[in-house]
Amino acid sequence: MLEKEKEALAKRIAGEITLSSDPGKTMRKWREIFGISQTELAEYLGVSSSVISDYEGGRRKSPGASTIRKFVEALLEIDERRGGNVIKAFSKTIGSELPTSAILDIREFALPLTIKDLVGAVKGDVVANMHLLDRRIYGYTVVDSIKAILEMSSEEFLKLYGWTTERALIFTKVTTGRSPMIAVRVQGLKPAVVVLHGVKKLDELAVKLAERERVPLVVSHASSEAELITGLRRLVEKTEREL
Fold first, then answer.
1. CA–CA separation, 23 vs 130, rounded Å?
2. Lowest mean pLDDT segment, chosen from 81-90, 104-113, 173-182
3. With contact defined as beta carbons under 8 Å apart, do 168 and 140 qualify?
4. Taking 90 as the threshold, does the pLDDT of residue 155 lie above it?
5. Of the candidates 178, 194, 161, the residue with the CA atom closest to the CA atom of residue 85
6. Is residue 102 classed as helix, strand or coil in its secondary structure?
7. CA–CA gap between residue 162 and residue 160 (Å, rounded)
8. What gap in Å lies between CA 27 and CA 95, rounded to an integer?
9. How far apart (Å, rounded) are the C-alpha atoms in residues 131 and 146?
10. Fewer CB near the last or first residue (10 Å), C or N of the chain?
11. What's the CA gap between 187 and 227, in Å, rounded?
């Protein structure tokens, strides 16, 4: 199933772990992206959960090539057993043109961040689900809301998620916030957080939809799209320095 994409994803994971200054953090990032618990991974590898915990916490020396290979194979095999959702999502980002007229920026973090980190970067105010700000995110997509809603098909809209829904969807040129939240609800897949930029008067329905879907909603007060994206890219650079 999707052998080329699977091989490309395996190389990416192994490469990130090998080159990381904190391999344990990177291993944890990928385990969480795949939605696999320490216990499940340990059972597959035939080790105790404490071994996985020790690697992720930096209490064991950096894993060797054999350990990294077994770790990557375990993630991919467990994902395939579940239907290959992560591998399939990754495959959609290879060899296909994204609707670039709508997408202004799309990045993955080298290490996961919290929504709280993102709020500061976008000069945001949280207007729904303040209690979920510790949720971890792995990337972001900045999208022109008008083009996204008027021009993009359902399949193209799903590409806004990259290859994990645990990310921020950031809509610019927003007036009230109602349309972006309706679009998120209709599509079925929920991002970890939605950020609205350019809001003139926030619609109460947007807040209610966010609360119903348990998606934190943030209003950005960045002075322009350029300032918004600059703040986000600084977050990317921060995670790359920490690798």
1. 31
2. 81-90
3. yes
4. no
5. 161
6. coil
7. 6
8. 26
9. 30
10. N
11. 29
Rounded to an integer, the average pLDDT of 43-70 is: 92
Structure letter (DSSP) for residue 100: T
**What is the per-residue pLDDT for 12?**
83
How far apart are the C-alpha atoms of 113 and 236, rounded to whole Å? 10
Q: What angle do the packed helices 65-81 and 38-45 form, to 10 degrees?
A: 110
- Strand pairing class (217-220; 124-128): antiparallel
Mean pLDDT value of segment 25-53: 93
Share of the chain above pLDDT 70, in %: 91
Q: Is 224 exposed, middle or buried (0-12, 13-18, 19+ CB in 10 A)?
A: exposed
**What are the residues whose beta carbons fall under 8 Å from the beta carbon of 37, sequence distance 6 or more?**
none
The mean pLDDT of 46-62, rounded to a whole number, is 92
Q: Which two tokens stand for residue 49?
A: 């959960």
pLDDT for position 51: 94
Question: How far apart are alpha carbons 159 and 141 in whole angstroms?
Answer: 10
3-state secondary structure of 217: strand
Q: What is the pLDDT of residue 195?
A: 98
Both tokens of residue 44?
């597959």
Query: How many residues does the structure list for the chain?
Result: 243
Residue-wise pLDDT for 197-232, tens only, equals: 999 999 999 999 999 999 999 999 999 999 999 999
The alpha carbon torsion through 218, 223, 225, 226 (nearest 10 deg) reads -130
